[in-house]
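Encode chain A's predicted structure.
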Amino acid sequence: MKSGYLIAASWLALALPNVALADEVRSDGAQTAAPSVEEIIVTAQRRNENLQKAAIAVSAVTGDALRASGITQPTGLTSVVPSLQVAPAAGPYNLFYLRGVGNFNGNAFSDSAIAFNFAGVYIGRPSATTGFFYDLDRIEVVKGPQGTLYGRNATGGAINVLPKKPELGVWSGFGAVDVGNYSAVRLDAALNIPLGDKAAARFAVVRVKHDGYMNDGTDDQDDVGVRGSLRFEPTSNLHIGVVADYFDQGGRGVGMTPLLAPQGTPAATMISPDSRIGIYSPQGQAFYTSQWAGTLGRPFQAFAANFQPFLRNHFVGVSATAEWQSDLGTLTIVPSYREGHLNFNSFVPGFQVYSVERNAQTSVEARFATPDALPLRALFGAFYYHDHTDSPYGDYASNWNAQYDKNTLLNTTSKALFGRLTYAVTPALRLTVGGRQTWEDKDFSGSRISLTRICTAASCPTAPSLPYGPTAPALGAFPSVVVPALGAAPYGGLPDVVGNPNVIQAATVFSNSENKSFSKFTWRVGADWDLTPHNLLYVSYETGFKAGGFFYSPNGAGGQFAPETLGALTFGSKNRFWNNRIQLNLEVFRWKYKDQQISHLLTIGTVPTFVTENVGRATFQGFEVEGQFAATAFTTLHVDAQYLDAKYDQFTYQSPNSNGGVFNGTSCPTAGFANNAYIINCSGMRPVNAPKWTLNLGVDQRVPVSVGEFTLNAKAHYQTATMTGMEFAPVEQQAAYWLADAQVSFSPNIHGLTFGVYVNNIFDKTLKSQSYPTPGTAFYATTLRPPRTYGGRVSYSF
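Encoded structure for chain A:
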């Protein structure tokens, strides 16, 4: 199979002749320059290079294209990068999957398998990845393990978000206003200010607000971002840059619609996702109060009027980049500091998630790179990262079960040495070897109260529910239900709840304290060959690693999970044909994923606990084709297609057995039982967020007229059936779909002024993005992608 990959890549590079094309001739006999595909410069390999010369699997999207697509959050990247799937989770969290490789990172206990970097700085928490999508130069999505060139190690890839830098000697800027349905308003502005001939500053702001897409007002947006950048070049060989940013995230947050699906199969009476009924709406509450509340012996109780979702999060960061050039090479140092403050309440997974958290991260990266002109090119670097998370309170509550966390402290210190050597055997043939040694230290401490209310009769219609609320002391409102100071549990057994002799309460109070060190050497080997100045072949094999971590557990000091690893083999070809009018790139890949970290609900003893397990092995293989065709000076066509053959080779995990062995909660077979839990075998299943086919089509058409120019941008995204939940249940599958967007703009003969209209999700498709089985009941909590949106925009640049 490996030889087949190489034959396919070589055939692509030689399949089309690099035919010279004479300049186009106008009807009046004058010549105009022939059309060509746009050049994009990337820094994915920590040097400026043409995307077509980068011997790695990377996709790039310009900032203008992101702005035109209306992308203001990471979830929007799904429609522009076929290999990437991004879904929202509770509160500010985002879930990243690249070719099916990813993890559920719904809290601070685990790291993402996909590294997210802003302005060259690793962003450690998946909760802090939203506030960057304005005034961008581009984003780069690098596929496969990363770490031998920069930053934090990652198993699945990296997303590099690059803001626009200040320009020396230029007064410039822009302002833009978008208005649309759902009372949508987006305001962008940026100003570039020269400070003499050796310095410049740039300031950018964004305001995004729209009403909720769900009928309870959730799935709204209420964001404000501010960024300031400084560029200083005191000499020709010393460059200094500083970036500071602030982001405030408000609104009600991500919404959820409940889908009734006993044993994972949609019921005939299921609420239609097309109705976009949110759980807080009257219709949502009518459904919710008709469902059985776990072990409580009665239906769920309606939400109190003051129980509402909210986001009150803000983030701030500052980083610097100092670059000193000499005859020996270039030394780059990147220090940074970031903070995130979370305060949110959400019901996205079908139970309350309320969290108060402060996160602070410090990082320093240093790199030294020899000149590119030498036959032997080297890059050596060191990386330091420290992350401290302090969560004084966390609440994960349902009427029948609740977990209350106090004083959770998490610390991660990551240190690494990395390097890469590239030797030019000939001017056209290069060999590369790289390595990274990573050392990580993690520690965790905290305390948890776990309460479960159990009906001992056939039903308990008056059983008092555990309340939804912001603090554990609210439980004192119920007779004889006392939340003790954290420490040794005062309960000698299962006390009756006063006034309800058939209801007992199981209470567990425990504290965890753990620390563990991890280390791993990862490496890369590769070769690339310029067949012609316009045709590149490359091959590489790279390994990736992500450290293990902890979770709350009533057993001993706490629960632990092991590291995960990935090995990626890649064959690629990048080509320009017909005088740069055609760009055609091919990548063939085979990834082997081992010990993937999966987070899910498990009962440990009598305590339902959100655990992370390592679940075996998986294989991801396929190909991706990216093409562009400059058909005329005014027309450009785009195509990007990926085929993904993905399978769990070995995937077993445990899930609570709360129904006497009737149903294990998944579409996978039960392999056995252990400790009041199902042993579930999902080997052979297609991984979550790993569609077999994804396809992007696009056209950019310019139409000059006497008073200005019209521009049409249209794109379509297709993907085959996609599993959105780890239970592989029928209700969690999103069927194959097409998604279409379009915009038309007009630029009059007034420099910098543009008017436009847009429509996204033209056919108003209702699409699932993530699904969760609600513990103790028969419905699934499902998040949805945005409905059809449309509006107009006006912008002015100078």
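DSSP finds three helices and 47 strands in the chain.
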